[in-house]
Amino acid sequence: MDVVLNYRSLGLVRGQTQDVGVGGMFVKTGRIRLPVNAMVDVSVIMEGARGMSPFRTEAIVVHTTDGGVGLMFCDLEDDHHTLLHELIYGRHEYLDAAGRVCHVH
Predict the structure, then answer these.
(1) Consecutive H or E run containing 78
(2) Domain tally for the chain?
(3) Structural domain boundaries enclosing 7
(4) Distance CA 48, CA 19 (A)
(5) What is the CATH number of the domain that holds 28?
(6) pTM for this structure?
(7) Long-range CB contacts (< 8 A, 24+ apart) of 87-91?
(8) How many CB atoms sit inside 10 A of residue 85's CB?
């Protein structure tokens, strides 16, 4: 998926997701390097059960490689958590942070 990262020192950085998980993602950024512990705004359009949905959240850079960055999401909204579960697992129910079963409509 196409991703746009907004890092205040560089501005907008375009990349491609390589791996996506409920806690974060790895984004291929090419030659652009971001420092570990940098805060970035993540913007991506994801396809879920209800069609295309914008996904915007804050993340922290937890590791870097020559080709990209590993990001950990910060304070995901419930809708974003649901969208990630749909994308990754394709399930229509999941456990929320409190251990309750939630259903995707």
Answers:
(1) helix 78-89
(2) 1
(3) 2-76
(4) 17
(5) 2.40.10.220
(6) 0.74
(7) 87/20, 87/46, 87/47, 87/48, 88/20, 88/21, 88/22
(8) 20
CA distance 49 to 103: 12
- Beta carbons of 35 and 78 less than 8 angstroms apart: no
- Extract the tokens encoding 37: 């512990």
Does the pLDDT at position 105 exceed 50? Answer: no
Residue 85, domain member (yes or no): no
- Structural domain includes residue 82: no
* pLDDT over threshold 80, residue 64: yes
Residue showing tokens 């969208």: 83
Residue type, 11: G
Q: Is residue 101 assigned to a domain?
A: no
Contact (Cβ atoms closer than 8 angstroms) between residue 19 and residue 86: no
In a domain, 81, yes or no: no
